[in-house]
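Hi C.,

You asked whether I'd gotten around to modeling the 148-residue construct. I have! Everything is below, sequence then structure, no commentary in between.
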Amino acid sequence: MRLKEWVFLLVFVAIAMISSNLIGYDVSVSDSLSGVLILCGIALIAVLLSKVIPLKLPIILFCSLLGLLFASPISPVGDVVMESTSKIEFKAPLTIVGALAGISIGASFHEFRKQGWKMIVIALVVITSTYAGSLMISQLVLKLTNAI
């Protein structure tokens, strides 16, 4: 995708996240705006890095690393990032991402059907194992921290 398309998509997602935060969680637009701008800024920097760095790595990797760096305690902007993004309910961006993923899957459903029944089995195994792995890791961390 070109940079213009990424910017358009991020503006759309920002508006949707702010709307979702407002409607679903009663968080005002002014409270959400700074956190959404930071998240979209991190995503845009990740896109730019993926175009500049010659390695073929997924954008989500750059996005995750940048988010960790910007929000870490050693970062000079860590406190601002944490304060601003803490006002965004986690499920607000998750709802938008889920809707966009559903649209994307629906658009390529015919290609998916051509793959045959084996792809469905593989998808179910991957989804189930990812879920089970997440459960085990979270259970372990919660037990180690005496949260449960």
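If it helps when you're writing up: The chain has two domains: 3-107, 112-148.

Thanks,
B.
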